[in-house]
Structures are given as C-alpha cells and as structure tokens.
Amino acid sequence: MYIETQRLILRPLKQSDAGFLSGMMKDPDVYRYILKQEPWSEGKIDSLLQKQEELFCQQGYCLFGVEMKGGGGLTGYCGVQPLEDFAQSLHGKVGISWVFQKDYWGAGLATESASAFVDYAYRETELKNIKALIHPANRGSMRVASKLGFEFDDLVFRNGRLRIMYSLLKEKHCNELRTSHAREVFFMEPGYI
C-alpha cells in the first residue's frame, strides 16, 4: 500500500527502516519535541517497527515512511497510531505524528504528507477523529496542524509533560474537501510503483 502526492511517496514503516530511524532519532533537534525527549534505543525502534506492522495489518493505518519521489531514501515518517501509551484518558483514540530529518524542515513535507495521510485515513479506514498531541514550544507543528484544519481540543499531561491536543473530525475534514480545490493524492496497492 502506497500513498503518492505531488512530491512524495508514503508507505508503511518496516523493519528495514531501523537504520534510518536510529540515525534520525539521534539528532537532539529532531527528538526534542517527542515525548521522552531522548535518543531512541535499538530496542525502542525494533518494538516500534513491529508494532507498526501489526497495526497496519489489523487497522489499515500506522506510521508511514516518507520518501521524496525520484529516490534518495526516507526523509521522515508520518501517520497515526493509538494514543493509550501516552495517557489512559486517551484509550481508544489515535494521534497523528510527523517527524522529519532536519535537512527537510521548512520544505512543506510535514503538511503535504500529513494532509495525504489524513485523506487516506478518512477514506480507507474506520477512523472518525484524529488527534495531534503537540509540544507547546513546537510552533512548526502547530502551524501544520492549523493548515490541516485541526482545532484545539484539550491540554494533556503525562509524567509532568504538557502537550496541546488538537482534533480533526472526519465529518469536518470531508466537508472541507468538498468545498475546497481537490488535492491530487493517489492510493496504490503494492506492485504499481
């Protein structure tokens, strides 16, 4: 399963992406807004990748690797996953994430990939509400969430760490798509690329 946009190809993360994630998640600028604000261990990466493969098989969504068209490998990841690991009060809810190598910041990749992923999730899965938990100092991610139509929902704490929770309902997203210019996004099964 692939999602294609004007510049990007998104596909489910897989075990062979461990090396990429290990390198990206050693950069303090990349992980500073992620929950524990620390580099990811090999064990955490292996566990995350296994969870993503299971999640995609069961639910049709997970974190997707993001590649620029024309090659060059992964630039980051984007997608949704359950939020119960963040806080018990979020059990049954899913949250969207976008994380990119620093070299790709400011190029619109987070907005482009997250927009395509939300389109996919609301067309191809049973999801009705996607959350975004954003560190209060992460202005770039707040701008991305705003561009996508996410609205303030609540403040969430875990282990003394604050996150601002935004929400985007399927109904609102689909209504906005009908009234705006259609985006060019393609969903493809393996073998078409």
Account of the protein in words:
The protein is an alpha+beta fold. The chain is 33% helix and 29% strand. It is built from six helices and nine strands. The radius of gyration is 16 Å and the shape is globular.
Entry summary:
This protein is of the alpha+beta class.
Question: How is this fold's topology laid out?
Answer:
Elements: E1 2-4, E2 8-12, H1 18-24, H2 28-31, H3 42-59, E3 63-68, E4 74-82, E5 94-100, H4 109-124, E6 129-134, H5 139-147, E7 151-158, E8 161-169, H6 170-179, E9 186-188
Parallel strand pairs: 5-6
Antiparallel strand pairs: 1-2, 1-9, 2-3, 3-4, 4-5, 6-8, 7-8
Q: Rg, please?
A: 16 Å
Order of helices and strands: EEHHHEEEHEHEEHE
N→C terminal distance: 10 Å
Overall pLDDT, averaged? 86
How many strands, what sense, and barrel or not for the largest sheet?
9 strands, mixed
Number of beta-strand segments: 9
Helix content: 25-40%
Would you identify the regions where 5 or more consecutive residues have pLDDT less than 50? Answer: 181-193
Count of discrete alpha- or pi-helical segments spanning 4 or more residues: 6
- Major sheet: order of its strands? 7-8-6-5-4-3-2-1-9
Task: Write down the overall geometry.
Answer: globular
Structural class: alpha+beta
The fraction of residues in strands falls at: 25-35%
